[in-house]
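Worked example 3 (structure in, sequence out).
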């Protein structure tokens, strides 16, 4: 498989670009490059001039804002990092850092903005997909499903199996957990309490401990 074909396939894996036709992805691949980031490295910084947009091919990335330290977002394989919309002169609205080793597709802002102008039909599809992602209309419609999917993502990318349990060393406050899965602090605490009472998972000062991964997958 040629390098161009690999890039086209990687773009297909990013949900934002999965709405494009093969020809549109082929055209977009001409301005797309692949990048790899080590664990705990910065992808971009809040308020810096936006150089590029990024999609996650594999790995896990967290986003945060200086004025809202509890508002942490987590993005995994197939996600588009929402730090900026592709327009000239833009600045990143948040900081993005890798939690695990991460592979990305990177598209320079200026070239992407010009590509969108030349391809209005593709631009409309990408814009609609971006709005849906920002509004949180993902497949996991309720907070419990989002919480389950989030914790399983953490386990998959950052988990360490010890003593038959999966430990995820990413500490969070109850508020951070709730904001991450798009619910209130009270509902987040209810979900954590339910997992604890059912012997599925616990969240403590050092992160999460998943006692029963299969039970977590099956929770409704």
């Amino acid at each position: 498989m040629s390098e161009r074909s690999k890039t086209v396939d990687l773009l297909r894996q990013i949900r934002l670009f999965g709405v494009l036709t093969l020809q549109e992805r082929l055209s977009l691949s001409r301005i797309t490059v692949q990048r790899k980031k080590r664990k705990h490295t910065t992808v971009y910084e809040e308020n810096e001039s936006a150089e590029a947009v990024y999609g996650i091919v594999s790995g896990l990335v967290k986003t945060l804002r200086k004025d809202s330290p509890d508002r942490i977002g987590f993005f995994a394989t197939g996600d588009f990092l929402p730090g900026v919309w592709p327009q000239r002169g833009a600045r990143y609205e948040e900081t993005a850092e890798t939690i695990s080793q991460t592979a990305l597709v990177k598209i320079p802002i200026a070239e992407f903005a010009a590509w969108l102008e030349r391809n209005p039909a593709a631009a409309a599809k990408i814009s609609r997909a971006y709005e849906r992602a920002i509004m949180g209309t993902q497949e996991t419609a309720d907070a419990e499903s989002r919480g389950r999917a989030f914790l399983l993502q953490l386990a998959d990318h950052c988990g360490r199996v010890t003593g038959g349990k999966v430990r995820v060393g990413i500490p969070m406050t109850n508020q951070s957990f709730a904001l991450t899965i798009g619910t209130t602090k009270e509902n987040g605490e209810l979900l954590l309490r339910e997992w604890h009472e059912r012997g599925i998972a616990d969240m403590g000062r050092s992160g999460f401990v998943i006692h029963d991964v299969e039970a977590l997958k099956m929770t409704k």
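Notes: The chain has two domains: 3-134, 143-218. Residues 167 and 209 are 5 Å apart (CA to CA).
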